[in-house]
User: Fold these one by one.
Assistant:
Number 1:
Amino acid sequence: MHNLDGRVALLTGASRGIGPLISDRLARAGLKLVLLARDRARLEAEVARLRAAGATVIAVPGDVCDAGAQEAALTAAEGLGGLSALINNAGVEDFGHLTDTAPETIADTVAVNLTAPLQLCRRALPALLARDEAQIVNLASVAGLLGTPYGATYSATKAGLIMASLSLRMELAETRVGVTAVCPAFVHGAGMHEEAKRLVGRAPALLGSTTAEATADAVLRALRDNPAELIVNDAPLRPLVGFGRSLPGFATWLTGRLAGPYMRKLADARRPPGA
Ligand SMILES: NC(=O)c1ccc[n+]([C@@H]2O[C@H](COP(=O)([O-])OP(=O)(O)OC[C@H]3O[C@@H](n4cnc5c(N)ncnc54)[C@H](OP(=O)(O)O)[C@@H]3O)[C@@H](O)[C@H]2O)c1
């Protein structure tokens, strides 16, 4: 999008983690915001913080999987002048031994990380198509490009979200709605990787890492430039992703060697007693 000032964005997962850094960037670029997450108190604190800095913000507390919450967020966006940007950022991780993972956890991870973004895209598209320019940004992960040991469900949802993004991008090629998949890995400073760090320390440097700030900057870049996919990591992962597509045996061997011991430590740390 050429001009972000005055446009309206819906950001899911805005209550904590990387979300507040994304809303900062969006507000500073002049976007009006609708924020969706379940934690009402945190969301209201975010609204107060952003309004104090001069932003126009509405909070819609709710579960991103709930059709009513999705509709309420879209109605709020219409009230602010019409949706131009949908940022599907809400996500959950469930790294661990698959045999330790409850069936409901697998279903919830798929619902939040994959089904909800698709449903929101579907519901938001009429509004987005009515704008002169619009953008969908899906927070995926390098886990969806390479796979992750002890992360079968999470990686599957993020791979699904990347393919959903690329497919929708092709479907919308003749329109003015762009679609980008943003793929960070091991984000430091805020977000879900901080809990893993508390449990088992930092991931090995060879796997590369990034910051919550760089991830939020990538979302803003996606809104401005409409790239198909942005990998956010300081290691040169693109060649490994290329190998992953042409030589999956080699790529999983290498990724398993690099990430396996760290992810195994995390999975073991989360084992329920007696498992
Ligand atoms: N941090 C990383 O290392 C990393 C790496 C790659 C990709 N990512 C992706 O980046 C995105 C943001 O991750 P993060 O690290 O900021 O995670 P986080 O700190 O765990 O925050 C997740 C956000 O999603 C919201 N959320 C979760 N379930 C929800 C639901 N059912 N309905 C509504 N909101 C829900 C949470 O809010 P409530 O609890 O208030 O609902 C929270 O605001 C995710 O899609 C994640 O997969 C993160």
Number 2:
Amino acid sequence: MTTIIAILSQKGGGGKSTLARTLAVELTKQNQKTLLVDLDIQQKTSQEWSERRKRKNIKPLISCQSLPYFEEKLIKTNYDYLIIDCPARISKESLIIAKHASLIIQPVRPSLDDLNPAIREFHALVRAGISKKKLALVINCVNSNAEEKNTREYLTEAGYFVFSIALLDKVSYREAQNQGLSISEVKYPRLSNQVQLLVKSILSKI
Ligand SMILES: Nc1ncnc2c1ncn2[C@@H]1O[C@H](COP(=O)(O)OP(=O)(O)O)[C@@H](O)[C@H]1O
Ligand SMILES: [Mg+2]
């Protein structure tokens, strides 16, 4: 059985690729056969990231494939996990992916300009028949406890599950990815531990 985790959002820059790479790294470290699927064919940033990682010989290497669209035949491969890094446009294809996914995660930045589209996106998936139980949000790029609290309340009020760990806005998360690392591999234990806890709670939600 292949488990599919889809990371999507209509907005660019919310943290889809950041989160998708992190899940791919942590699952691969757990000896799960994992493929990171980069569906953002115009940008291919996760594919580039995996190539940076390979050039720097950072272990484990991450299997990443860039595809123009989600192919249902991917489900029949022998991967334990497919992590789908979706492009910043929601299309009919998102619905196909959502149907096959065990978990659909939307990373969201804490501003109304990001929160409202994220909520609308989940409402649309629910209207299209996707179970609310499969939908979850990760608050990304918070700068204060108050910001996190307000964001969490806003999203919970809208009726969606929000992971209890939010990701802080940290330069070292960007630098890590520039180096081919995931944000769970940053050198500051306080930050990497927080990311690993988030990964743990994501995997336990499946
Ligand atoms: N928590 C964070 N702290 C600092 N920078 C972040 C954080 N999350 C994402 N970024 C940076 O923001 C940019 C956009 O993130 P990315 O994951 O590529 O978003 P998306 O794939 O949704 O477009 C990248 O440069 C990434 O390194
Ligand atoms: Mg991306």
